[in-house]
Design brief:
The complex is a heterotrimer of chains A (553), B (314) and C (302). Chain B is mainly α. Chain B is built from 14 helices and no strands. Chain C folds into 2 domains: 39 residues; 258 residues, MetI-like (MetI-like fold, Orthogonal Bundle). In chain C, helix 6 crosses helix 7 and helix 10 runs parallel beside helix 11. The chains are: A alpha/beta (553), B mainly alpha (314), C mainly alpha (302).
Chain lengths: 553, 314, 302
């Protein structure tokens, strides 16, 4: 078996032979509802040294395709038919035992989530060494030396120390570097990178993608890049394959696909991707009310949390100040740990700030408690990131949207029903949804329900905490359009918390950039983007994917 | 680190003290003299001085609180009172009955480990899903089986039907075989279930897929990556398992007519021999607390994730 | 740890959720739905419900199932092997074993129900109070639970039996008290889990008062797994009560109780295997069914 695929990647006569050739691949899963095919007739080519991006939204079958290639489908998954040729050899029908001889050596994987992709009870060194040991690459000492070399190569400082550490002692970015070291250790012909950066902060994401690029060029390895982010694909890939519902909708050279997409769906994806769609959502600002019209005033906000013992204090937010004019959108931007969510929660009144001043619609939030705090809920509402977690799974949609009304001045039942129906119509949900429960709805519909619940009390201010981050880009675009429409119609003030600068640029008027709890930049959004006031903001803006020329190769 | 250890030990001591108090309230808060009258039974052959001695050691003539403090002090000094039935110090009784039960439960525990690990390994390695679901249903059957009935069934099959193990005058090891199996089977079941659940859970972790992608075989992954991650959480049920062992010993010794702590427990309940029962309750609570303390303090040695957390900052 | 990857991870998690739900949505045709219902019937679960139903009927209307008396034997019919006349044979006093098992169902089941009710009511209430009050009350209750847990369950129930006296109701109460700690722990952890969820915070955020959020969100969502656990405990209680019965602390003879039946049959092992074997198999079947039913509750939750 081994001899059949023992083709040296360096030999010149096979340059034109694709590293990977998939043809008419069909994959399905056995479930409670019987066998269901999720990948239909997928065919694609990856040539030596090339990056091919497999782009699609959730449920498009992109990850399943990648897993089928390397043979790590979930237990109930099955490769039904089709050909997977690796260096000319069809491996589609191979047993796990046969695949073991090529995995790690000829074909390797960079996984989705670095936090759970390393064994928590083994050292980093042992986990990198494992791939070398499995394929018998030299003596113990040689392997140890090679491990250190690899860790250094992927840009980890103090590689000897790292080798002795455990995964939880490393940051997410460092862990992803370790996983890259494992993937490139034996210089495979093909690396499958399955959403390698979607769990990472945007600045870390850029560095990791740069590293993969660099190693690919150095080792001549081909990469099959699975991503939901068209911007990433545009930056990094030679070829783009667009998947939807398990079928290929379009494939071709990156520049071509971006410049003149042939399929309707690709055009929609391109238009909806915030990083690529150049056009800002068309917004006609409602004429501002003159005079004192600040909806939110935050002054020198500080928020401490005690951790561990009582004496240790962690300062999550350190001196943040901004004002938001009524009827406008202010964005708070930052990476994880920047304090943006903490700021939002203080403003909504879920926690009492350590010091500073928060005034929302003339109400001093910092002094509210008990009944006055409860009354304050009518002024400001929060929409959560994950619409599945923020809706009670046991309630019907009607009950969910009705509930806030029951908490204040009780209306007669018919009035309530009328109000709930009106607000659901407003957010674009059909009537039959009323009697369903959240699990029967799609992600976008659930977020519409969450927005409806927030709006049913007629609040003046809406805080949106990463409210579109969990959604697919086409759904995201719809929700953003809805938010814009609602703001126009109802004169709402938005506080928009996000890690995604591209989205922020699309929808907000003013912005505060947070970094490690401090405000490093702020002002009208175009000013900040055109003339960033801090090095950090410049780095953030530079890291937005989709800005590179696609024809750089 | 040391602050954590001291705090944990203090917590353990507190639980133990509370368990003592609960057992005192449950058992000794009965009218004191009603029990002590039994010591006057001439069959016990206690002299008047001894009876006076016992009365003093229980502080029967004092209010309940003084009695309580008295008992605490006595327990702290290793003086657990007198057995009503046998008329000897409870400490002696427990010591005399300890070693057969220790043998029984140690062997039973080891056999249950072997059973549990075998079942879990077979289920993880079985190549067919029907075989796996069959193996996975074995512990459910074990759990639902009454211990005493299992013992009786074993006697019936191996002693009466097959005549493999004599009922009358078996050798010391022969006599232990059936009781150990009886004790081990029901205890192996929860262990096997937890192990299998953990293995199934760990197998879905992304790091297993990464290991497979390195070219590791199914067996290699099970051994190098799954085993430790699946076994570690089972340590935390060590204390509960001990309680099961003790309960199992009570029933097993009753079924097979063996001497030991279990038999002593049963006799003390039959005879309403409160002092003996209280000592056994406190003794087992102490063992439970000690086992849990050991597991808690040892866990970080096996799990690197907890090593840092014990310090100040997570 | 830093929350470095929380956004990304929840993103991924949500992506998974979306993927499955959109798959499920596509199935709509009523024909396929029928097929699905038929296919989703699990024979094991149906059998478990059947066993439970039979045993409950035994307990309620024993006279429907047998014409023999459970307590009065027939002379010269002692220790008869199973036959057409006595399906499961007779015991040393000439009593029909099947009749004793059928009449015993009432004692064993009602004992188990008493035990589970005690544990469920007291334990769950304590757990809910601990989980919703937090702070010192929580600490006090949970330390008490720790203490209860530190005493092995059988020893604790024996101590309580001594205090209350022998008998089936007392044995059941004792068994119930020993399960208070487990119920309290489970209920508390469920309340704490639900309390930390976004939808509970959202309910407070839309102006809900504490009692209203507790009644409308926290309790319904946390009680599902408590109910599943209660079903599991039912099987466990049947086992433990039969153990106490076997040891002689439960129902006094000649009451038919499953554990006692086995204890009595023990003296005739060589001559009458059916006296111990059959009641044991009945206990196993009932406990297995209770566990299987509990499992199906647990699964329905997710």
């Amino acid at each position: 078996m081994t001899t059949a695929i023992n083709i040296k990647s360096a030999s010149t006569n096979i340059v034109n032979l694709p590293v990977l050739e998939i043809s008419k691949l069909a994959v399905g899963y056995r479930g409670s509802e019987g066998f269901q095919r999720v990948v239909h007739e997928v065919s694609l080519l990856v040539r030596p040294g090339e990056v091919v991006a497999l782009v699609g939204e959730s449920g498009s079958g992109k990850t399943t395709t990648a897993q089928a290639v390397i043979g790590v489908l979930a237990e109930n998954g099955q490769l039904e038919s089709g050909v997977v040729r690796l260096n000319g050899t069809d491996i589609a029908g191979w047993s796990q035992k046969q695949l073991d001889t090529i995995r790690g050596r000829k074909i390797s994987l960079i996984p989705q989530d670095p936090t759970s992709s390393l064994n928590p009870v083994k050292t980093i060194g042992a986990q990198v060494a494992e791939v070398l040991q499995i394929h018998r690459q030299g003596s113990r000492a040689e392997i140890d030396a090679r491990v250190i070399e690899l860790l250094a190569r992927v840009g980890l400082s103090q590689p000897e120390l790292r080798a002795r550490q455990y995964p939880h002692e490393l940051s997410g970015g460092m862990r992803q570097r370790v996983l890259i070291a494992i993937a490139v250790a034996l210089r495979p012909a093909l690396i499958i990178a399955d959403e390698p950066t979607s769990a990472l902060d945007v600045t870390v994401q850029k560095r990791i993608l740069d590293l993969i690029d660099e190693l690919r060029r150095e080792y001549g390895t081909a990469v099959l890049l699975v991503t939901h982010d068209l911007g990433v694909a545009a930056d990094r890939a030679n070829h783009i394959v667009v998947l939807k519902g398990g079928r290929i909708h379009e494939q071709g050279p990156t520049a071509e696909v971006l410049a003149s997409p042939r399929s309707e769906y690709t055009r929609k994806l391109l238009a909806d991707a915030p990083s690529l769609g150049k056009a800002r959502i068309a917004r006609t600002r409602s004429p501002r009310v003159s005079g004192s019209d600040d909806a939110i005033v935050v002054g020198n906000l500080v928020q401490d949390f005690s951790i561990g013992g009582r004496r240790d204090v962690f300062r999550a937010v350190d001196g943040v100040s901004f004002t938001v004019q009524r009827g406008t959108t202010h964005a708070i931007v930052g990476e994880s740990g920047s304090g943006k969510t903490t700021t939002a929660r203080s403003i909504v009144g879920f926690q009492r700030p350590t010091s500073g001043r928060i005034i929302v619609e003339g109400i001093d939030v910092t002094n509210l408690r008990g009944e006055s705090l409860r009354r304050f809920r009518k002024t400001i509402q929060l929409v959560y990131q994950n619409p599945f977690a923020s809706l009670d799974p046991r309630q019907t949609i009607f009950q969910i949207v009705e509930e806030p009304l029951l908490n204040f001045d009780p209306l007669p039942r018919e009035d309530r029903a009328r109000k709930v129906q009106a607000i659901l119509e407003r957010v674009g949900l059909p009537q039959p949804v009323l009697t369903r429960r959240p699990h029967a709805l799609s992600g976008g519909q659930r977020q519409r329900v969450a927005i409806a619940r927030a709006l049913v009390l007629d609040p003046q201010v809406l805080v949106l905490d990463e409210a579109v981050s969990a959604l697919d880009v086409t759904v995201q675009a719809q929700i953003l359009a809805l938010l814009n429409e609602l703001q126009q119609a109802l004169g709402l003030t938005y506080l928009f918390i996000s890690h995604d600068l591209a989205v922020v640029r699309q929808i907000s008027d003013t912005v505060s950039v947070l970094h490690n709890g401090r405000q490093v930049d702020g002002g009208p959004v175009e000013d900040v983007f055109q003339r960033p006031g801090s090095a950090y903001t410049r780095e953030l803006i530079g890291a937005i994917p989709g800005q590179r020329n696609a024809d750089r190769h | 680190m040391s602050r954590y250890v001291i705090g944990r030990i203090g917590q353990a001591a507190l639980v133990l003290w509370a368990a003592f108090t609960v057992s005192f309230v449950l058992l000794q808060a009965l009218p004191g003299d009603a029990i002590l009258i039994k010591f006057l039974n001439p069959e016990l052959g206690l002299g008047p001085e001894q009876i006076a001695d016992i009365r003093a050691s229980y502080a029967v003539d004092s209010p309940l609180l003084v009695q309580y403090l008295h008992t605490v002090a006595n327990f702290l000094m290793g003086n657990f009172g007198y057995s009503i039935h046998a008329g000897v110090p409870v400490g002696d009784l427990i010591l005399a009955n300890l070693s057969p039960t220790l043998w029984l439960s140690t062997l039973g525990f080891l056999l249950s480990l072997v059973l549990a690990i075998t079942i879990a390994a077979l289920s993880a390695l079985s190549p067919f899903s029907w075989l796996r679901s069959f193996i996975q249903s074995i512990p459910a059957l074990f759990i639902s089986t009454p211990v005493f009935w299992l013992g009786i069934l074993l006697i019936q099959v191996f002693s009466f039907q097959l005549k493999l193990i004599p009922i009358i005058n078996p050798g010391p090891w022969q006599a232990l075989i059936l009781p150990v199996v009886t004790l081990a089977v029901p205890i192996s079941a929860p262990l096997a279930q937890i192990l299998m659940r953990n293995i199934d859970h760990v197998l879905t972790e992304p790091f297993v897929a990464v290991a497979r992608a390195k070219g590791a075989s199914h067996r290699g992954v099970l051994w190098r990556h799954v085993a430790k991650n699946a076994v570690l959480p089972t340590l935390t049920i060590g204390g509960i398992l001990f309680g099961e062992l003790l309960a199992g010993a009570v029933v097993t010794e009753a079924v097979f007519g063996l001497n030991g702590l279990g038999g002593l427990t049963q006799r003390s309940v039959n005879d309403q021999d409160i002092a003996v029962l209280q000592a056994i309750v406190v003794f087992s609570a102490a063992a439970f607390v000690l086992i849990n303390l050991t597991v808690d303090l040892l866990y970080p040695v096996f799990d690197p994730r907890l090593r840092v957390r014990q310090g100040a900052v997570a | 740890m830093t929350g470095l990857n929380t956004i990304g991870r929840s993103l991924l998690r949500d992506a998974g959720i979306l993927e499955t739900s959109s798959l499920g949505k596509r199935r709509a045709a009523s024909a396929t739905r029928w097929l699905k219902t038929i296919r989703s019937i699990q024979p094991g679960l149906v059998l478990s419900w059947f066993v439970m139903a039979v045993v409950v009927l035994w307990a309620l209307f024993p006279q429907w199932f047998t014409s023999y008396s459970a307590t009065v034997g027939v002379a010269r019919q002692q220790l008869r092997a199973p036959s057409a006349e006595h399906w499961l044979g007779t015991d040393a006093l000439g009593r029909d074993l099947l009749a004793r098992i059928i009449y015993g169902a009432g004692n064993s089941l009602s004992g188990a129900f008493v035990a589970v009710s005690v544990g469920l009511l007291v334990g769950t209430t304590l757990g809910i109070i601990a989980g919703s009050a937090r702070g010192r009350i929580d600490g006090a209750i949970m330390r008490g639970v720790d203490v209860l847990l530190s005493i092995p369950q059988l020893l604790l129930s024996l101590s309580i039996v001594i205090l209350l006296g022998f008998g089936i109701v007392n044995a059941a109460i004792a068994v119930g008290i020993t399960s208070i700690a487990s119920f309290a722990r489970l209920a508390r952890s469920e309340v704490v889990r639900v309390r930390a969820s976004d939808y509970v915070e959202a309910a407070f955020g839309s102006g809900g008062t504490f009692s209203r959020v507790l009644l409308r969100h926290i309790l319904p969502n946390s009680l599902t797994s408590v109910i599943a656990f209660a079903a599991l405990q039912l099987g466990w209680a049947i086992l433990t009560i039969s153990t106490l019965g076997f040891l002689g602390y439960g129902a006094p003879p000649p009451t038919p109780e499953w554990g006692l039946l086995i204890a009595e049959g023990r003296n005739y092992l060589a001559r009458a295997w059916w006296l111990t074997t059959v009641p044991g198999i009945v206990v196993i079947l009932v406990v297995l069914s209770a566990n299987r039913i509990s499992q199906s509750f647990g699964r329905a939750k997710t």
